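I am still getting used to backbone structure tokens and would like to learn alongside you. Would you supply a protein for us yourself, any chain you care to pick? Start from the sequence, derive the backbone structure tokens from it, and show both lines together. Go ahead whenever you are ready, and we will take it from there.
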Amino acid sequence: MTALPALALICCTCMATIAVELGLAALLFGVHDRRAAAVVALAQVVTNPVVELGCLLVGWSPSLPVASPAWAIMLALELAAVAVEAWIYRETDVFERPVMASVVLNLASFAIGCVAGLIFV
């Protein structure tokens, strides 16, 4: 994959992740004000491109066997994203329980992304 399609894919996945996590933050955690929504969106802008670039570099796909090294790298990247987002949420006081919010939002968006990847890719 060349740089331009990879960049387009990263941008699309980041926008989709922002949409999913903003919707779930509003639905599950009552995030409705602009500041809190901006923090959730910006947390994705910080973490999602790194995770997606890592996925592209190791050739990760949800259709790969779970025991593959690419899955281990993907899970490490996702755990790092959870930690960074939880820190951002704690520092900005967006969620009462920032670690739980980060875990729930990331699990949900990861699951939705896996299903979408299996269907559309």
Summary: The mean pLDDT is 92. Residues 3-29 form the longest helix (27 residues). The helical segments are 3-29, 34-58, 69-92, 98-120.
